[in-house]
Structure formats: C-alpha cells, structure tokens
Amino acid sequence: MSGRTIVIGDVHGCFQELQDLLRAVEATPSDRLISVGDLISKGPDSRGVIEWAMKTPNLECVLGNHELRLRSHWRAGTRSSEKAHDADTYRQLGDSYEPSMRWIDKLPLTIFGPGFMVVHAGFDPAEGLEWQTASQLTNLRRLEDGRPWYEAYRERTLAVFGHWAKRQPVVRANAVGLDTGCVYGGALTALILPERILISVPARRTYVEKKAWEEPALAGGR
Ligand SMILES: [Mn+2]
Question: What is the whole-number distance in angstroms between the Cα of residue 175 and the centre of ligand 1?
C-alpha cells in the first residue's frame, strides 16, 4: 500500500474521528498524508489533533482560515477574540500553544503532487494562483457572479479543497471538496490518490450546531 497520498478533510479538533479515519484508510508511515487545513478550532480537542500533527513526519498541511486567524494574532503578540470559540481553542491548546503556533507558522498555502493540488478553500481560476492572497485561498467559496469557484475551474490538475461543509463531498472531474462537516455532526472524509477513493467516518456527535447545510453541486453540473 505504499505510494498512496491520503488527503484529509477539515478536522476542527475532532481527534477521535481523525483516529477513526486513519484506521479506516489503514494509514501507514509510508503514506503521504495531507491535511486541507483547519485542523484546529471549533471542535473538542484541538490540542490532541495538533500534537498528533506535529509528531507525524509524513503529514503535510495547508493553512486553513482558522490557523491563519490564530497565526496573525500570534505574530502580532495578541490573542484573537473574533470568534466565540477562540477562547476555547486557546484553553484547549494550553501549553501547546507556542509550539503549535510555531508549527502553524511554517504551513504553506498550497501543496502540489502528481496531477493534484491542495488548497484550503479555493481560488479564482481567472486569476493566476500565485496572485491570490492568503485570505482568498483560505476563505473563497463563490466567485463574484455567485458560482462556486470550482465550477469555473477548467484545468486538468485535480484541485482538492475543504472549508465548505456539505453533507456529501464535492466530486467533479477536476475538483474534490472534502469538508463533510465532522464538527457539525457530519463526517470526516479522506481522499486516497491516485485511485480517487473517498472514505468517510461518521462524527461521534454534533460538536457545533450548523444552521443550514447546502447541497453540493451535481458532479459535472452547473
Ligand atoms: Mn475553513
């Protein structure tokens, strides 16, 4: 089973479900593990997740919007109070806060592999990827015309992303969205490459109530 790449959807501190998923995909140290970001925040055990991440040498991770927010405060020597759950995240991290932020500080915005790329949220396909800001790459869902960004994406390179929680993964010829809302009581989903196998494990409970779920676009549809 060597030579696999396993991309993991938005964990948000759901450490038990992360362990469930790693068991479900039978992850080994020879797999290339890639997180789509938002490892921490909102969920019950950000510390467990980030400590696992820091001690897993075959894990790579792109920066999520929650890491970006906490990192910007850390760089400024402040603490975020923009989100109600930030205080809880700081409390969970405890004395792992400093090493966690030093680890997060080094995360890239994009990761590339053979035939694929990973980004937390998305990008405007009409602009070059290199022109997009960290805020765009970690937050973008829709283009100015209202379309989901991936519906305007025409390249062959498979774009794997998270951030937009849906009941089912987004599966298109050239884009896969992996955020199935584990922290909202949905599921945690992984994509195994190059076979493009999707594996999900259910959330053990609802950690945050989600007001509304949007249905994903049909594969290949508009
Ligand atoms: Mn996100």
Answer: 17
